[in-house]
Amino acid sequence: MRTHSLRSLKVLVASGVSVIGVGFTSSVAVANSSSAPTFHVSQILQGTALQHSYTPAGSATSKIETLSKPDDISQLGNDLFVGFQNGVGPQGEASTDGNLESTVVELSTSGHVLGQWDVVGKTDGLTADPALGGVLATVNEDANSSLYLIRPGLAGSGAVTHYTYSAPLAHDGGTDAVSLFNDQILISASAPGTTGSPSPSASSPAVYSVRLDAGSKMAVATPLYFDEDTATVANQNGAQWGKTTQLALIDPDSNEVVPKSSPRFAGDFLLTSQGDLQQIYFNPEGGSHPRLLVLALTQAVDDTAWPTTHRSGKLYSTDSTNNAVDVVTGDFDSHQPLVVATPCGSNSAPATCPAPPTYPNNYLATLNLKTGQVSAVTVTGAPYVPEGGLTFASSADH
Predict the structure, then answer these.
(1) CB 75: neighbour CB atoms within 10 A?
(2) pLDDT one-digit tens code per residue, 96-105
(3) Is 9 a domain residue?
(4) What is the 3-state secondary structure (H, E, C) of 223-273?
(5) In what order do the strands lie in the sheet with 113-120?
(6) What is the number of structural domains in the chain?
(7) How far apart are CA 191 and CA 188, in angstroms?
(8) What are 200-233's pLDDT values in tens digits?
(9) What's 219's domain CATH number?
């Protein structure tokens, strides 16, 4: 989940191929319709209630600070895991107080802290891997990326295993969200061109399939598809619906697996290209020619979550602005995904953001899977500016 930054772009000229996004404009209105659902937010944990010790860069003396900037969130068994970034920079740069470490916290769904582990770098993507008995955490979304496996069942330093990439990442950037899909670890290739040529590029992977070598502690990354691959337009309300288009991704970001219960894209792997206002749905059933569908959105979004039960369950969310982990309750619709709308994450956002009314703070919204319409929902309760991390727990999970 990235914070807003401006990156260099190259102009894509493709003979005979349309570039997705033509004919779609960003909607920045956050007004709620009378038919929109209403949800209630309660804080279950604040970063200020937790501390970690660290040794500032260039120092030999350790210090203690409270945790800050919660970002991604995942569920393993009955417990939640949240990555607190603690001010570390997107390439692993030290925070303003010299800290180089993020903290992954395990907590119950009621907010009781069960454990915490520090990892070097800015943790971004976080996902549970039951087969490995832990959670995977990516660090450094813009460059100098690596990967951690945290297994809470192991004691001491054995709980954390650090994996470095076996070769430089081909997109010259970092890594972001991570998901498990068809027995593969899939990781977003974020911030393409940070250390190389401007993006987009036909040779720049959008997503990697990653294999972990436990013996060498190496992560081997293989491209799944690329930033300029062709895709089929999925917006049913546009003249381009069903036509082939060329992607031009410069901001691969969040990802997740669409549940089988979804009314559209069921079982697909979803990549959100946040700044590009696009979601790319991947289905490998085509064999050597997997299907890619692209849905143009009316607003930049970060995480997407599908309620897996109808009219019940709880949505867990992070809020970096208020340094909190929240639970959202309400009348969920299992056919209606929820997203974190991020106006300041758009490629068109100004350098100083938020800048209301055009570029307001983040907000919770619904996503129309047919049209790409992002519509704000009414939220009551605790102060709430969702950062990006969302995970839904059914009634049976808590």
Answers:
(1) 18
(2) 999 999 999 9
(3) no
(4) EEEECCCEEEECCCCCCCCCCEEECCCCCEEEEEECCCCCCCCCCCEEEEE
(5) 70-76, 79-84, 101-108, 113-120
(6) 1
(7) 9
(8) 999 999 999 999 999 999 999 999 999 999 999 9
(9) 2.120.10
